[in-house]
Amino acid sequence: MTKQSIVVPEEMLFLIPPPAAKTVSATAPQPGPFPPPRSAAFTANYKKLMTHLDLHGNSSWAETMKTSSPTHLRTSTSHSERDDTDWNRNHPSALYRFEEIAAAAKGKKIVMFLDYDGTLSPIVDNPDSAFMSEAMRAAVKNVARYFPTAIVSGRCRDKVYSFVQLAELYYAGSHGMDIKGPTKWPKKHRQSRVGAKSVLCQPASAFLPMINEIYSVLLDKTKLIPGVMVENNIFCLSVHFRCVEEKRWIVLEEKVRSVLASYPELKLTQGRKVLEIRPTIEWDKGKALEFLLAELGLSDCNDILPVYIGDDRTDEDAFKVLRDRGQGLGILVSKFPKETCATYSLKEPSEVKEFLRRLVEWKQYSLRVQKKA
Ligand SMILES: O=P(O)(O)OC[C@H]1O[C@H](O[C@H]2O[C@H](CO)[C@@H](O)[C@H](O)[C@H]2O)[C@H](O)[C@@H](O)[C@@H]1O
């Protein structure tokens, strides 16, 4: 089992106090140090989590399948409000702490990385209907006017493009294994891009025949389980169990594992009510982030602030890259406390939209001030 297959067990999900106002108010917490430090209690919880999970493949998948996408508030919990407060202190709202983020961004070039499902669009039962709102599209479009922006998704690139429909963005589909540059450039860059190739990176292309083959096998093997949906994400596959009765999850997992047994070059990980089949190559959303920074010529710059916003376990690879670089900020989208390498949190896509809107507003204001000076 790989790092991506780590899930938060139910007992590590604590209730968060009710959502607060979306704008910074006089009563909002005052900006603290950047990035906010982690408390001893948080570190203890993290250790507990790591002890609970067997990272070498023996932990119960059935258990993790149950907790892979909590959608309701727990009614009973062994954790106290103090734990919730502790989590919130360690992963404060990026909206509440907007002033702090703006201060950190001053004089820096922001580079924006956005996950799709659960970040720009709400989680829905049918993956084909995970549309983003027009308001969200406008917010992303505006962000891309000021900052290089990439969508980094587990979906295949064409599919996520069909949802987002903005030609001015970078798209890293199939968990970053299929990266394409913008097809529409701002005027000032247009000339220098003539002749530049738009597909930038496909590190798993050798796996295409194998992925296609296993896709057909999985369709066949799972067809009798009501509610299963197998999605072909080109360089990886998703087996959705959100609409499968819970009592059939074990059977499904066993079927998927039995198919995979003949393909040691592929690995199985978990996302939100989804089993993901991916090549065993050393590539993930974190690597995609690093690749895109290099492509933008920003890898070794001190004056950049990469911002990555995502909701799922696969996004942790990108949060970790930022943490290890000691540069930029990860923002986890979650209504529930979860173990994460992200620094800040937002509760849901509507808060992501508000955050993007405020970032643009702040940038426009900074440019006006700069012009006057
Ligand atoms: O990296 P992402 O853009 O977040 O993609 C991860 C997976 O997202 C999609 O599945 C998830 O969203 C669906 C629609 O809301 C939901 O029905 C499903 O339960 C979630 O797991 C996508 O369909 C998968 O292929 C991606 O791997």
From TrEMBL:
Its cofactor is a divalent metal cation. Residues 62-78 have a biased composition (Polar residues). GO terms for biological process: trehalose biosynthetic process. Residues 79-89 have a biased composition (Basic and acidic residues). One of its GO terms (molecular function) is trehalose-phosphatase activity. Keywords: Hydrolase. InterPro entries: HAD-like_sf, HAD-SF_hydro_IIB, HAD_sf, OTSB-like, Trehalose_PPase. It holds the Pfam family Trehalose_PPase. Gene3D superfamilies: HAD superfamily/HAD-like. It comes from the Eukaryota. Its EC number is 3.1.3.12. It catalyses: alpha,alpha-trehalose 6-phosphate + H2O = alpha,alpha-trehalose + phosphate. Belongs to the trehalose phosphatase family. Removes the phosphate from trehalose 6-phosphate to produce free trehalose. This is Trehalose 6-phosphate phosphatase.
